[in-house]
Q: What sequence folds into this?
C-alpha cells in the first residue's frame, strides 16, 4: 500500500493532464447553451461515473453528451420562439465550425504522425547501421513481411483477424480479397484520381480515415461481427484503407502487420513495399496449393533441397491440373506466365533452391515445346505425367545410382562422419546396413539452430544403425577417433567446383582434409548449378536471427511453430490494451470521484491500488510464459547483431570426389557435366 | 616486516587439524567444480597455500618443500584439469628453491671457498640447453648436496609468504599488462572473431581497446554451443553495451565468415610448454584450424600464471568431457533399445601450430618460445609432483 500511494498521485496528475484537452471542447459547446445544458452535461458526466458505463469510450461519452445537449438546446430555442429554419441554419453553421475544428485536430494529429515517422526514420538509420556483413541479402523479416501481407490478403477475414491486433488486416483483407474481381482496377483508379498536388491533403484524410476506421472497427468487433451491416461497413472502410495504404508511400502498407513486424522494415526500403504491392495486384492468380507450399517452406516445415523440389513439383502438378487457359491465348504461351506468378510467391518464402530453379527451367522448356494444336486437357495430362517422370528420373533413380556407387566406398567396419541431414545419405547408409549387412558406425555431426542431424540420427537408430550424435564444436575429438571417411550432402554444386551446403559443412570438410580423411559428396546432377561464387558472404540465405536467442537443445524453429508467435503477439497486445483501458478507467473513475467528493479519496486509492497489483500480476505471468533469454530485446542495442546464415561454401580442394548418377568425378569436372548433359537437365 | 611476522605467528597457531579441514573443503570444492575459472582457482589456491605455510612446521626447508609438493599433488589429483592450481604452487616452490640456492651460495662462500664451486655446480639447475644431463635425476643431486646443510639464516616462511603476496598482486593486475600490448595489435575497423566468450581477459581487453585505444572494430562472437552459449550471449551483450559492433554467429558459420575476419582472439585456460593451449570452450581448435587455413592470425591472451610446465603428451587426459543432457533433447523418443552415443567435450586443446602469438602480461611470445618463459618461472624438479 505504501508503495501504491505515490503511484496513485502520479496517476491522478496524469489524468488531470489528459483531461485538459477535452475540457475546452465541452466549454465551447456549452457556452452557447444556458444553465440547463450545463446541468445536463453534469448529469451526463455523473452517469459516466457509474461503473456500468465504463464500457463506453471517451468519444462515445462525448457523443452522448453532445446529443443530449443538442436536444435540450433545440427544445430551449423552440421555447424561446426561434423558427425551425433559423435553427437549422444555426445548426449548419455550428456543423461547419465543428468541421473546421476537426480539421484542425486532424492536422495536429498529422503533425504528430510526421514526428513519429521522423523518429522511426532515426531508428531505421540506427538499424541500418546494424547489418554490417550481410546488408545486401534479404532478411527473414522482410520475407515474413511479404508473406504476412500476402496471406492476410488471401485468407478469409476471420483467419487474419487473429494474425494482427491492429484489426486492420481483416479489413484490408476483406476489402482486397472480397468478392469484387475489379479490386485491382479500382485501386488503380484511386491512384490515378489522386493528383500530386492534392497528395498532402490526401494523406491528411487518410490518417483521419485510419483513425476513424480503427475506432469504428473496434466497436463493431466488440459488439459482434456477425451482424451483416457492420461487416459490409467494415468492408467499405477496409477498401478505403487498402487504397490509402497502397497509394501513399508514407503510410505503412498494411497497418496490422506492423504490430508484429518492425515498422521500419517497410519504411526503410521502398522496394519491399513496391514488390509487395506488385504481388498483391497479382494475388488473384495465386493457386491455393502454392500458397500452402509457401507457408510450409517459410516455416521450415519442408527443408532440404530435394524435398523442397519434390513438394514444388507436386504443387505444380495440382496447379497445372486446375489450370484453365483464358480465351484468346494458347496453353503453351499463357501457362508459363501463369506459373511465373506462382514462382514469384514461392520465392518469397525462401530463395529458390538450385534444384527448384533447375526443374522450373526444365518445366518451362517443356511447356514451350507443347504443340499449340494439342487439346488443353491432353496437354495438361501430358505435362503432369512428364513432371512425375522427371521427379522419378532425376531424383529417385539418380539416388539409386548414387547409392550403388557410394556403397563401394564403405568397407565393413568403417566409421563414417556425416553432417546435418541428407536424404540420399540416409538411404545410402540404410542400404549398406540393412541390405549389404555391413557393420558400420555413423557419427552424425549437427549444429545449431536447425538441428537437422537429429532427424537423421533418429532414423538411422530406428533401423538399428550404430549411431553417434555430436555437435560441430566437438569436431576435434571426433576426428581423433578412427574415422575412415566423411560423407557430405549438398544443396548445390557450383560451376567452379565449390560445394554450397548447410553451414558447417565447410568446416568439417576442412578438418577432415587436414587429417587426410577423404571427403565424399553425394549429390544428384539436378543440384549442379551454372553459378560461380567465391565466398559464402556474397550470396547466402539469412535465417531468422531470433532462432539463436533461445539457448537450449530444442529446435527454436519447431518451438516457434508450436507456440505460434502471432497468437502470442496477439495475446500480449490484447493484454496491453486491457491494461491501458483499465488504467484509463481507473483514472477516469478517480478523477470523477475526486471532483465529486474528496472525502472518499482514500477508498478510491485503495481500489486503484488493487488494480495496480492486478496489472502487475499480469505482467509477472507474462514473463513467466515467455521464458527469459539473455538476448531478449537485442534489437534495441544498436551495435548488437545476430547473423544466422544457412549455407556456406566448401572449396573444391577439400573434396576428394563427387558421386553423382553419372558416376564419381572430381569437383573440377562439374562444368563438364553441366555442358555435356545440358539437354537432359 | 614486524606486522608480517606477527601475522605469520598468529596464523601459525592454527593447528594442523584445522588446516587439514580447510584443505579438504578446498579439494571438495575443486572436485565439485564449485570454483570455476583459472583466475579464481589460482587466487584461492594461493590463499590456501598461505595458510598452509603459516601453519606448517619443519626443521629444514626441504621438509617444507616436500610438504608443499604433497599438498600440490593432492590438489592436482583432485582436479587434474585445474592447471592454474598446480602452476601457482610450482611457482612458489621455484621461489623457495631459488632462495635456498642463494642461501647455499652465501653460506658456502663464507664457510669454505674451495667447496663453494663444487656445491654451486651441483645445486644449480641442470642446464636445459644442454642434453648431457637429460637422463640425470636432478633430485638426487639436490638431496645429496642438501644433506650436509647447516642452519640457514633466511626465514623461508617469510620468503614464501612474500612470494605468495607478490604472485597474488601479479595475478590481479594481469589485464593491464596484456591490454597494453594487445591494443597495438588491432587496427581501426578490423573484424575480430573470438570463440572463447567466457574469457574475462578477452572481454576486458576488447573494452579497453574500444575505450582507451579509441578504435572502432567489429567483434564476431561464436556461441560455443552447448556449454558456453549463455556466456557468449552475455559477452556479446556486454560488448554491445560498450558501443562495440558485435555480431553473434553460430559455431557452424565460422568457416563461412573467416574470410572476412582480420584476427582471431582466444583466451587460454592453460598454456603448455610446447605452446599448445587448453581453452575452456569446445570448438576453439576448429576455429583456429579455420583461421590457419585462411592464414588469419590467431592470438591468445593468457596471464603468466596460466603457463604450465606440463607437456600435452596425451590430449585426452587434458580435455574434459561433459554430460549428454545438454546435447540430446529430453523428448528424444527412445523407441527400441538401440543406443545412441554422444560426445560432449567442454574444453578443447589447440595445437601450437594453430596459434600465432601469445600475449602475456610480460610481453608477446611465439608459441615456440613459451618453454623459455616457463623455465624462468618453474623448476624442472617440480614438474612431476609425485
A:
Amino acid at each position: 500500500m505504501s508503495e501504491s500511494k505515490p503511484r496513485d498521485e502520479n496517476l491522478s496528475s496524469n489524468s488531470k493532464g489528459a483531461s485538459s484537452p477535452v475540457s475546452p471542447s465541452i466549454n465551447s459547446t456549452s457556452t452557447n447553451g444556458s444553465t440547463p445544458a450545463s446541468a445536463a452535461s453534469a448529469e451526463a458526466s455523473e452517469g459516466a461515473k457509474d461503473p456500468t458505463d465504463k464500457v463506453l469510450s471517451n468519444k462515445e461519452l462525448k457523443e452522448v453528451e453532445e446529443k443530449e445537449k443538442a436536444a435540450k438546446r433545440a427544445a430551449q430555442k423552440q421555447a424561446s420562439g426561434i423558427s425551425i429554419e433559423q435553427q437549422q441554419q444555426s445548426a449548419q453553421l455550428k456543423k461547419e465550425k465543428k468541421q473546421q475544428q476537426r480539421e484542425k485536430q486532424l492536422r495536429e494529429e498529422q503533425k504528430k504522425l510526421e514526428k513519429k515517422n521522423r523518429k522511426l526514420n532515426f531508428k531505421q538509420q540506427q538499424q541500418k547501421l546494424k547489418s554490417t556483413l550481410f546488408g545486401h541479402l534479404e532478411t527473414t523479416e522482410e520475407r515474413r513481411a511479404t508473406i504476412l501481407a500476402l496471406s492476410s490478403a488471401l485468407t478469409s477475414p476471420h483467419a487474419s483477424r487473429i494474425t494482427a491486433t491492429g484489426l486492420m488486416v481483416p479489413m484490408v483483407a476483406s476489402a482486397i480479397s472480397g468478392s469484387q474481381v475489379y479490386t485491382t482496377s479500382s485501386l488503380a483508379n484511386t491512384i490515378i484520381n489522386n493528383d500530386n498536388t492534392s497528395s498532402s491533403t490526401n494523406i491528411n484524410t487518410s490518417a483521419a480515415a485510419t483513425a476513424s476506421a480503427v475506432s469504428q472497427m473496434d466497436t463493431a468487433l466488440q459488439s459482434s461481427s456477425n451482424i451483416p451491416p457492420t461487416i459490409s461497413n467494415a468492408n467499405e472502410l477496409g477498401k478505403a484503407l487498402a487504397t490509402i495504404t497502397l497509394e501513399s508511400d508514407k503510410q505503412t502498407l498494411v497497418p496490422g502487420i506492423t504490430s508484429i513486424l518492425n515498422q521500419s522494415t517497410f519504411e526503410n526500403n521502398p522496394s519491399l513495399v513496391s514488390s509487395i504491392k506488385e504481388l498483391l495486384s497479382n494475388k488473384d492468380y495465386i493457386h491455393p496449393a502454392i500458397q500452402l507450399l509457401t507457408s510450409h517452406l517459410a516455416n521450415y516445415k519442408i527443408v532440404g533441397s530435394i524435398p523442397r523440389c519434390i513438394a514444388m513439383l507436386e504443387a505444380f502438378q495440382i496447379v497445372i491440373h486446375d489450370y484453365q487457359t483464358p480465351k484468346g491465348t494458347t496453353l503453351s504461351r499463357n501457362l508459363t506466365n501463369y506459373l511465373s506468378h506462382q514462382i514469384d510467391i514461392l520465392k518469397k518464402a525462401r530463395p529458390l533452391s538450385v534444384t527448384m530453379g533447375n526443374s522450373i527451367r526444365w518445366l518451362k522448356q517443356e511447356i514451350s515445346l507443347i504443340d499449340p494444336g494439342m487439346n488443353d486437357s491432353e496437354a495438361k495430362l501430358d505435362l503432369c505425367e512428364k513432371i512425375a517422370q522427371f521427379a522419378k528420373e532425376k531424383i529417385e533413380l539418380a539416388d539409386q545410382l548414387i547409392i550403388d556407387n557410394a556403397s563401394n566406398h564403405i568397407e565393413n567396419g568403417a566409421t563414417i562422419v556425416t553432417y546435418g541431414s541428407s536424404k540420399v545419405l540416409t538411404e545410402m547408409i540404410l542400404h549398406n546396413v540393412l541390405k549389404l549387412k555391413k557393420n558400420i558406425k555413423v557419427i552424425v555431426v549437427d549444429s545449431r539452430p536447425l538441428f537437422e542431424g537429429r532427424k537423421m540420427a533418429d532414423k538411422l537408430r530406428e533401423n538399428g544403425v550404430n549411431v553417434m550424435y555430436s555437435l560441430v564444436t566437438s569436431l576435434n575429438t571426433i576426428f581423433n577417433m578412427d574415422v575412415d571417411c566423411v560423407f557430405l550432402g549438398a544443396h548445390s554444386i557450383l560451376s567452379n567446383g565449390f560445394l554450397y551446403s548447410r553451414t558447417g559443412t565447410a568446416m568439417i570438410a576442412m578438418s577432415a582434409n587436414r587429417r587426410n580423411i577423404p571427403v565424399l559428396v553425394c549429390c544428384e546432377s539436378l543440384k549442379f548449378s551454372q553459378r560461380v561464387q567465391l565466398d559464402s558472404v556474397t550470396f547466402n540465405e539469412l535465417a531468422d536471427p531470433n532462432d539463436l536467442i533461445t539457448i537450449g537443445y530444442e529446435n527454436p524453429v519447431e518451438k516457434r511453430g508450436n507456440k505460434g508467435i502471432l497468437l502470442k503477439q496477439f495475446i500480449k497486445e490484447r493484454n496491453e490494451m486491457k491494461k491501458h483501458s483499465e488504467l484509463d478507467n481507473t483514472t477516469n473513475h478517480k478523477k470523477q470521484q475526486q471532483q465529486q467528493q474528496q472525502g472518499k479519496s482514500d477508498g478510491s486509492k485503495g481500489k486503484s491500488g488493487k488494480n495496480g497489483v492486478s496489472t502487475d500480476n499480469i505482467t509477472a505471468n507474462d514473463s513467466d510464459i515467455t521464458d527469459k533469454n539473455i538476448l531478449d530485446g537485442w534489437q534495441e542495442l544498436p551495435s548488437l547483431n545476430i547473423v544466422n546464415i544457412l549455407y556456406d561454401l566448401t572449396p573444391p580442394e577439400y573434396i576428394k570426389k563427387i558421386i553423382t548418377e553419372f558416376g564419381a568425378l572430381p569437383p573440377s569436372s562439374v562444368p563438364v557435366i553441366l555442358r555435356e548433359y545440358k539437354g537432359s537437365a | 616486516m614486524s606486522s608480517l611476522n606477527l601475522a605469520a605467528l598468529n596464523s601459525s597457531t592454527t593447528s594442523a587439524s584445522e588446516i587439514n579441514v580447510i584443505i579438504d573443503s578446498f579439494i571438495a570444492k575443486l572436485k565439485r567444480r564449485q570454483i570455476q575459472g583459472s583466475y579464481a582457482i589460482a587466487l584461492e589456491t594461493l590463499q590456501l597455500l598461505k595458510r598452509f605455510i603459516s601453519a606448517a612446521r619443519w626443521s629444514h626447508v626441504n621438509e617444507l618443500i616436500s610438504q608443499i609438493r604433497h599438498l600440490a599433488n593432492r590438489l592436482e589429483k583432485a582436479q587434474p584439469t585445474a592447471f592454474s592450481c598446480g602452476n601457482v604452487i610450482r611457482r612458489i616452490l621455484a621461489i623457495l628453491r631459488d632462495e635456498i640456492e642463494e642461501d647455499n651460495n652465501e653460506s658456502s662462500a663464507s664457510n669454505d671457498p674451495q667447496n663453494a664451486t663444487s656445491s654451486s655446480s651441483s645445486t644449480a639447475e641442470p642446464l636445459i640447453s644442454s642434453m648431457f644431463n637429460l637422463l640425470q635425476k636432478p633430485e638426487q643431486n639436490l638431496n645429496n648436496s642438501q644433506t650436509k646443510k647447516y642452519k640457514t639464516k633466511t626465514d623461508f616462511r617469510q620468503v614464501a609468504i612474500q612470494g605468495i603476496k607478490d604472485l597474488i598482486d601479479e595475478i590481479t593486475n594481469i589485464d593491464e599488462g596484456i591490454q597494453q600490448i594487445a591494443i597495438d595489435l588491432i587496427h581501426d575497423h578490423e573484424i575480430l572473431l573470438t570463440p572463447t566468450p567466457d574469457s574475462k581477459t578477452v572481454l576486458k581487453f576488447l573494452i579497453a581497446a574500444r575505450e582507451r585505444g579509441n578504435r572502432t572494430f567489429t567483434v564476431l562472437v561464436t556461441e560455443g554451443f552447448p556449454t558456453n552459449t549463455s556466456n557468449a550471449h552475455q559477452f556479446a551483450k556486454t560488448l554491445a553495451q560498450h558501443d562495440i559492433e558485435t555480431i553473434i554467429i553460430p559455431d557452424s558459420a565460422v568457416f563461412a565468415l573467416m574470410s572476412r575476419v582480420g584476427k582471431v582472439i582466444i583466451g587460454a585456460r592453460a598454456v603448455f610448454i610446447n605452446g599448445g593451449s587448453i581453452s575452456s570452450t569446445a570448438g576453439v581448435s576448429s576455429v583456429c584450424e579455420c583461421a590457419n587455413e585462411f592464414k588469419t592470425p590467431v592470438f591468445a591472451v593468457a596471464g603468466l600464471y596460466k603457463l604450465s610446465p606440463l607437456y600435452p603428451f596425451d590430449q585426452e587426459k587434458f580435455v574434459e568431457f561433459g554430460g549428454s543432457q545438454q546435447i540430446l533433447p529430453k523428448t528424444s523418443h527412445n523407441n527400441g533399445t538401440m543406443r545412441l552415443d554422444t560426445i560432449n567435450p567442454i574444453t578443447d586443446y589447440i595445437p601450437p601450430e594453430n596459434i600465432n602469438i601469445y600475449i602475456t602480461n610480460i610481453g608477446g611470445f611465439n608459441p615456440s618460445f613459451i618453454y623459455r618463459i616457463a623455465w624462468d618461472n618453474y623448476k624442472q624438479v617440480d614438474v612431476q609432483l609425485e
User: Anything to note?
Assistant: The CA atoms of residues 494 and 533 of chain A lie 7 Å apart. Confidence is low (pLDDT under 50) at residues 1-54, 156-235, 237-262, 598-626 of chain A. The longest helix of chain A spans residues 84-130.
